[in-house]
Amino acid sequence: MPAILLPVRTVTGSVPVKATGVKQYPAITASGTLTITNGGMLVQYLPAGFLLASNSGVEGATDESVTVPAGNGESYGTVTVSAYAMAAGRNGNIPAYSINRIYGTDIFVKNTRVFSGGRDASSITSAADSDKQTALMSARSQTTSQQPFGLHLKPWSEVTEVSDKQARAIPTCQPITDHIPTRAHVLSIRVRETRVVLTCRGLAGACERTEEGRPTSRRPSFLRTLPSG
Question: Are 101 and 108 in contact (CB under 8 A)?
Fold first, then answer.
């Protein structure tokens, strides 16, 4: 006998994720530039990591070695080099002109712009993988009570959506039904691939047969009746 496809059934379970994890953010070092001027007649050389104290006490250091050209009697030799604060965090955001030093008699070093980007270490609560899995299991539990009993054409298929804030389980199934022959006792109903296998026995007990039919979305125009003897 033909099986009848019932409307597709979709249920949804949704549970917020309770975050118990901790995400750490390390301190970030500020960076900037130094302007180096040479008032002498000789070329000067400064190595990478050359330390320069600021008025606040935070030291800056050159990122790379630098050669400072000599003056020519009419103008100074000048070069700009990248630098970083020795102290990580916001204290390394050295204000402009806080570094203003003279080395020897000819070398002048200034930071004409503020050092920026320094950030203190911090931590925040975040959703760990175990938190997301726990929420998803709870969402699946919600859908269990909503799933209809009866025959399904195929096992339930599930779509899951999990973020740091929410977990959702969305199972879908294709319910089916059939017409039981009159005056028949159903021994078993099984779904085999795309077929419904119905085993019945007549009320008189003299006949037993198995009916198979492919699922259809149309209601059959007749019902089969098993013989009673």
Answer: yes
Task: State percent of the chain over pLDDT 70.
Answer: 73
Positive or negative, the CA dihedral 92, 93, 98, 103 is positive
CA-CA-CA-CA dihedral for 222, 223, 228, 229, to nearest 10: 60
User: Residues 157, 171: contact at Cβ < 8 Å?
Assistant: yes
Higher pLDDT among residues 110 and 185, named by residue:
110
Longest Cα pair distance anywhere in the chain, in angstroms? 127
How far is 113 from 109, CA to CA, in rounded Å?
12
Per-residue pLDDT tens digits for 74-127: 889 999 999 999 999 999 999 999 999 998 889 999 999 999 999 999 999 999
Assigned token pair, 194: 């795309």
DSSP the chain: --EEEPPPEE--EEEE----EEEEE--B--EEEEEEEE-SSS-EEE-TT-EEE-TTS-EEEESS-EEEPPP-SSS-EEEEEEEEESS-SGGG-PPTTS-EEEETTTEEEE--S--B--B--EEEEE--HHHHHHHHHHHHHHHHTTSPPSEESS--EEEEEE-SSEEEEEEEE-EEE-PPPTTEEEEEEEEETTEEEEEEEETTSS-EEEEEE-EESSPPS--------
- Of the candidates 162, 222, 229, 155, the residue with the CA atom closest to the CA atom of residue 193: 155
